[in-house]
Amino acid sequence: MRDVETLVKAFNATGAPIDIYTNRRNGEMNYAAIVQSLDLRENIKIHFVGQFSPYEISREVERAGCVCICCLPTKYTTGLTTLVEALALGKPIICSRNPQFPFSVDDEGCGISVDYYDTDGWIAAINYINAHPDAARAMGRRARELARTRYNDRICASEVAAVLLTLAAAKGH
Fold this sequence. Notes:
By secondary structure, the protein is of the alpha/beta class. The chain is built from eight helices and seven strands; from the N terminus they run αβββαβαβαβαβααα. It has helices at residues 4-14, 31-36, 54-63, 80-89, 105-108, 119-131, 133-149, 153-170, and strands at 18-22, 25-26, 29-30, 44-48, 67-69, 93-96, 111-114. The protein has a three-stranded parallel beta sheet with strand order 5-6-7, sandwiched between helices. The longest helix has 18 residues, at 153-170. The radius of gyration is 18 Å and the shape is globular.
């Protein structure tokens, strides 16, 4: 449920470089057809993930200056895996304002969120990140700190274990 069209329009307008990693098709979404219908300028590189392992994709994200998560509206946490990866890698984030996310990148100081389909908002966020490298680095540091202290597998496992123990105690086990 990625909004490739809005992302491409915004990066076309800014001229900033971007590498977009996606699969050719996911359920109803035919990203290969969507990409083929778009005007892609030289600053935009499309990579279909069938060509990359998760490790290789993470290595590419590690080299990125910023992580962009441009999604379509859904009733679930579209983009959450990418968000958590960006936190762990200490990257500033520009993302669609998904109300299903467990926190706001704006409020946490690790990125900029943009309304769905808001090309102008994406352009402003891209331009801000590019024009303010110190602020972008600070967002990345904050992202890494959040991953270290609040959003990681150790804390998640502890929270799940606490729920399971509570349920087991309630059933008398």
